[in-house]
Predict the 3D structure of the following.
Amino acid sequence: MTSLGSSSSSTTEYVVRVPKNTNKKYNLMAFNAGDKVSCSTWTQARMERDMSNRRIYGEEETPDGAAGSEFGKKQREEARRKKYGIITKEFKVEDQPWILKVNGKAGRRFKGLKKGGVTENASYYIFTQCADGAFEAFPVHAWYNFTPQAKHRTLTAEEAEEEWGRRNKVVNHFSIMLQRRLRGQERGEDEEEEGEKGGKKKKKKEGRGGDLRIHDLEDDLDMSSDESDGSNGDDDEAKSKAKKEKGPKGKGKKKKKKASDLEGFEDSDDGDFEGLEVDYMSDESSSEEEQLEKTKPNKGEDVPKGIDEMSDSEEESEEENKNEEDGKEEEEEEDGKKTPVQVEKKKKKDSSGESDSSEDSDIEGEAASALFMKKRTPPKRGGGRGSAGSSRTGSRPGTPSIDNAATSNTLRAAANKLEQGKRQTTVPSSETPAAKRLKMEPSPQSSSGKSTPQPVSGKSTPSSSDVLLTEDAVRRYLIRKPMTTKDLLKKFQTKRTGLSSEQTVNVLAQILKRLNPERKNINDKMHFYLTE
Amino acid sequence: MSDKGEVDLTGAKQNTGVWLVKVPKYLSQQWTKATGRGEVGKLRICKNQGKAEVVSFTLNEELTTVDTIGEKSSMVRAPREHPFTLQTVGGQTLAVFTENSSDKIALEGLVVQRAECRPAVSENYMKLKKLQIEELSKPMRFSQQLDKAVTTNYKPVANHAYNLDYERKKKEEGKRARADKQQVLDMLFSAFEKHQYYNIKDLVDITKQPVIYLKEILRDIGIYNVKGTHKNTWELKPEYRHYQNEEKSD
């Protein structure tokens, strides 16, 4: 190595050697600058050839000999290929891509594809400086372009097509992958785990708002009307609001397999979701409307079943209490069909806070009978409550009832009703609840259809609470026809008598003791009647 | 083997910087002719304020002879001076890894500088290029006139040897005779033991029976596949099949 000094620049000469017999083949590993790959940060790395293409070249192997094989198949195939001039490429290990794994399982993965045409017209050499200052040049054998491989879940082609179709409607893109994951979970789990999922989804909803429940919607309304941080559990309420609106988009709904099924089916009715914050008016409301519509039929199915259960589970000892609750709950269930009512109840529920929860837990403790309940309503109702809901969820398994979930839901519904009754000292204060009550009353009658054939509608004057729970009233009823305690309770609704559920139960019990009516078993139910 | 996939990261850790140089084909050819330790030339780097400004490579004298086909080799010589054009590594992170003969992978270093080796334009170079172009422009196929006609391949013959053999074979074999039905069945069953599907021609070959007779027997014990992957093949009827144990039942 000779150095020539000069004034401003220095020139140095180095010998260049091209080693002849190296057993090492030099290759290039090219990363995109944007991937920010820094080789110095690698602690350990593994690299192997990606052999996944081998089977393509291997071709389908038909069974050799015995079953499924043909005589002379191979020769015939070969002859056929020659005739048509089909040349199958060989599987060359040299040309296969590399799989590079950096920093173990949690690190990055790269795939290195061979770049063609590198050595055709010019050769690349790697000049390394040796210890003695000379340069050694090694020819580059191959050039591989390495790209990082995504570790996160991606959409498949079908899903991507779907999402593309919905791109204008979907605002919250974070929920897309969440829904996909949940869908995967659903398909893998049993029906009976739906309850758990409901609970999970409750909590998830609080965090993510991607789930799909009616109560999500109710929570929205609640939030817009009252400020409740508990119901959300989210720090950023605005975010959760936005997410909840997306929630009703219909992605996580248990019974619905595909989110895409939900959207774009129905027109929204006017005034249904007026209080809602919506980003895109038309689309939002339509999807939400669909949801509600879908829940309604779902609930509808459960109602008849529920009523049977309710009737079956009556017991004399706790009759009064239970019946009252049953009556309330049955009504609640009917109520449940009409979402606005539920909404309102939820409103009341949420704003009631602690008092409500305590009442609910009382009722839960008392009611040992199985009351019909849809499995879904528990999570729904509970979802709006945040901590209260979760505590109730906890207590639910404790209650020894035939259908735990059903019980608590109805109870909660009952509690709502009670609260409603309490809150509205004057019944006509709000027309809508009254109107809904009106709707409610005929429907329980029509659906139960067992012991109270006469329509209550005649008696259901919406504006006056003139039905007092007196002995005379009870006697009148029992003389007319045999009734179950449940039916009796229905007659004396808390809204109209102004009594709480407990009070009604107690008073009715006393009255019945005094009257000492005859008992008869009709359809396996204990009916009371008087003959005078 | 856990060793196999492991990459030796010493080069990356040391942050060894290498140069990636694009070299013309003829030059790399000359380099392969190097003898001894492999010294091919000298690299002159002129630094101005630390940065490598002018880089140039000079090919050794003895390597300038070009091996050409046809033309006299002394006429053309490879140029000696090759200035390097320096380029940035920019949009790519280039690393160099080596593969052993024993499939051991090692990371040698990172590319810090890219360069292109260009020949200094000279008379020599032009001649060399001209030669190259001439060679390349020659077509791969060309027509050549022969002096004598080719008479070695085939001659007209009264009857080809192959044909004679064929006729002789046919005569000696004679028409196929119908053997005992039971024997034929045995043959068929043993054949179907080996393979499930057979072409009628292959069966005729195996059993040496006339086609019509064979077909009759086959109609008894087998079915003819018209559609599907094994079309136009015969296979045994299901009740005769017993492929799991690789047996057949009568």
Summary: Chain B touches chain A through 69 residues (CB under 8 Å). DSSP finds eight helices and ten strands in chain B. Residues 123-137 of chain B form the longest helix (15 residues). Residues 65 and 77 of chain B are 5 Å apart (CA to CA).
